[in-house]
Amino acid sequence: MPIATTLILAMMVADPEPRDFAVPSADGTVIHGQVDRADQPGRGVVVMVAGTGAFDRDVAFSREAGARPVFLDLSDRLAARGVSVVRYDKRGVRYGATGADRIDRAEIVTATTDAQRDDLAAVYGWTRSPQGLDAQCVVLFGHSEGMVHIGRLASSGAPAPAAVVGMGAVLTDPVTNFRWNLTERDAWSLRLMDADGDGIVTNDEVRAGLADTPAAVNGALDPYLHPSGAWTADAIGALEQTWADAYPAIRDAILSAEDAAPWPSADAPAGNMQWAKSWYLDATPVAARLASWNVPVIVHLGSRDSQTHAPLQRAAGETYLGGRLTFRLHADVGHTLGPSPTYGPVRDDLAEALVDDIVGALATCAT
Fold first, then answer.
1. CATH number for the segment(s) 3-173+284-363
2. DSSP assignment of 207-232, as one string?
3. pTM surpassing 0.90?
4. Which sequence spans correspond to the domains of the chain?
5. What pLDDT does residue 16 have?
6. Over the stretch 353-363, which tens digit does the pLDDT of each residue have?
């Protein structure tokens, strides 16, 4: 074992407290994060990459009172299994701050697609470097859009990790994924509500079934109740066509904005319009980018995921990754593998399944 690695592991045993770090990204922006040290170190490191939003390293993404932040919870589980975890804040997000102080407005609007890839590259490079953790066995874990950042890192020529693991992860190109969200999700969900399979979705079936579909993300029942009392196949098709017809105008409105303008608004910026435009312009499949690395890719998705449509992700993954893809589809959970179509917390058994996959991937290279 290299001397530097021995010293790092000895330090982790002697001092199990989290270690803060700060690394410069390609444009000089300093990215802040922490290393959660394993209780029994030596089994490798996982770098966690958050999805869309102004997330800090904990990724608080739940509407349940008292729910633990998603990445913090997974990190505790991994540390208990001997895996150290690297977590970091999105540029422009101040960890530990609250209210208006939480967001650096000038910095967060620099979060272009390239910048977020470069931020991940800086954290990943630090994790592998002798000045950082000198980790030779690393898994990259992405939630949702986090997998898009990992894919862009892969196609940039970065060194391959031991494996990539995703939760609610995007494998299609961003355009296809977002278009499904905007134009097809409601029709797909209505068809799922046809409990008796007769081709007609009654309002009673909507009342009984909406919560178990991706459309529950909208939090409203009334838009899915048909004035006649039931949806025919033609009516569902017409709804889908209405959204498809509206799509070009919605897209053009986004594309007309200045790249550097704040997204979603100047009052509450969480990124910039160049990033928002990527969901209408980036037609390169994430799975094709991941294929730049000859490593296993393990993806967990839920059947009621409101953000990443499982059939589309599976098809893209199998097309570009082939036998390197392990696709785990879980019934009755959503985007963050909990009961909600979108939010966490991750259901306990599925959190442990994620940990099992990460530990198993690290076992192939850990010393």
1. 3.40.50.1820
2. HHHGGGSGGGGG--SGGGS-TTSEE-
3. yes
4. 3-173+284-363, 178-262
5. 58
6. 999 999 999 99
